[in-house]
Amino acid sequence: MKFICLTLLLVSGITDSRSEQYTVVGPADPVFAVAGEEVILPCSVKPSISVVDMRVEWFRLDLKDSVHLYEDHEDRNTEQIQSYRGRTKLIHQELQRGNASLKLSTVQISDEGRYKCFIQSKSWFDDGTVDVRVQAVGSPPVITVDGFDRSGGLHLQCESEGWYPEPDLEWLDSEGVSLSSETTETHRNTDRFSVKHTITVYHSGKIHCRVKLRHHMLETLMNTTNNMFISWRTSVILISVLVVLVVIAGILIAVFVHKHRAHDQLQNEKSRIQNEKSRIQHERDQLLQMQKIILPKAVSHLRTHTVNVILDPDSAHPRLIVSHDGKQVECGNTLNAVDGGKERFDCYLGVLGKDGFSSGCFYFEVQVKDQTEWDLGVTRESSNRSGSLRLSPQKGYWTVRRRDVRYWALADSQSVPLSLRVKPQRIGVFVDYDQGLVSFYDVESMSHIYTYTDQSFNEKLYPCVGLEYMWKWTNENSTTLIICDD
Ligand SMILES: *[C@@H]1O[C@H](CO)[C@@H](O)[C@H](O)[C@H]1NC(C)=O
Ligand SMILES: *[C@@H]1O[C@H](CO)[C@@H](O)[C@H](O)[C@H]1NC(C)=O
Question: What is the CA radius of gyration of the chain?
Fold first, then answer.
């Protein structure tokens, strides 16, 4: 009887997921947005079934953080990137028609990037990508007369600022023929570009300066007259002579005064820094030496507290594959058919150990190898496993993590970057329940990674390993995480 039930459950699970298969489609071409205006990021499911009951999440592919989340029939933006606050909107009527396009208002230059639109039903998921390019139109160009040269030409300069991305600047003569600039300068302040080009003209007449982007253009015209050529010549000669004299005198005085003062100061500072440097060098060497002796002893002591950790498939996210012996976990490409009764991870790709501990010390080791996205540590029995989680002590998680090439611990108020000299292959986790201490070690290089101290535990702690959020999971050649037994 049990067997028949199970078969029925599996068969219905499979047909269910077939009937709900869909693809998520984004635009093939980049979407262009204008800074300060509003833009629609298109995304829809094919065939166009309603996504009202599904989870729709928009996030930045490069920042890997949430831009907009719709779940359980409402918008839930508590984990949203700060700069998107109040600027995103999903049209709920459109969701019925399978249209999950995101409306983004008051576009900023920092909004430029690749976005993922991730749509997940109970048994299926897919995503589409939208490439957003932002353009900002700068100030109208300004042409000024900048000087004149010996052969009688007039130097003109054209400037314009506030553009994004970098615009093209072009000089045109009265016939509309493009002239080449003599010097070109581009500056980037915060995120916008300013450009400045110069040209020398030898005849009076009209000249245009045109600044343009792919979809926008601004232009200014200047009439150069014969008068300009003559008056510039006289005034420029006078002014140049005067300026040169003043500058030379100034430089001579400054150099004389400065040389004397600066030299002494520099010498003192130099020797002080040298001393400080060698003192620090010496202290560091001593510490490293001590660490080399102490840590292997400490780790072998910690190992005496090793416990047999077996991963609990009933706590695992439906996309995780936990081996039969409960010693290995990896991320699969589909969602497993699972019962919903148990408190399991539903967004975050996590899994707990079967057994929890509520006193004394315990220790276990996890082999992470070359996996580039993982979290591991311990968690409270009662901590939340549903939705977006912040794996911090406040939320009942004491973990360290790797994201690409960076490592972090998550203290309550902030993420603490960890600077590790080598990439750890195997990590030891030590917990002293009564002292309120959770420590992490790189077992192969015998170095300490991070310790949470002065924590207070008042319920069972479970070993916990994970691989990022399901919707952020982009790790193509995923490596299995292994609980070590030797
Ligand atoms: C999807 O909804 C947006 C508004 O959010 C609308 O501008 C767009 O035209 C809709 N797309 C389709 C294919 O209906
Ligand atoms: C430039 O000269 C033209 C005539 O050649 C005149 O129509 C125009 O108003 C002048 N523009 C400026 C800015 O002086």
Answer: 33
**Are 350 and 476 contained in the same domain?**
yes
Question: Which two structure tokens, joined as six digits, stand for 55?
Answer: 């989870």
Q: Considering 114, 135, 156, which residue would you say is the last residue of a domain?
A: 135
Question: Are 98 and 150 in a shared domain?
Answer: no
Stretch among 7-11, 175-179, 236-240 having the lowest mean pLDDT = 7-11
Q: Please confirm whether the linkage preceding 424 is cis (ω < 30° from 0).
A: no
pLDDT mean over 102-119? 95
Q: Is 27 in the pocket of ligand 1 (CB under 6 A)?
A: no
Pocket test for ligand 1, best of 49, 92, 99 (most atoms within 8 A of CB): 99
Where would I find the beta strands (DSSP E) of 295-432?
320-322, 328-331, 348-352, 361-367, 373-380, 397-403, 406-410, 415-418, 426-432
Distance 99 CA to ligand 1 centre (A): 6
- Whether the predicted model's global pTM rises above the 0.85 cut: no
Q: What integer pLDDT is reported at residue 426 of this predicted model?
A: 94
pLDDT, residue 232, reads 63
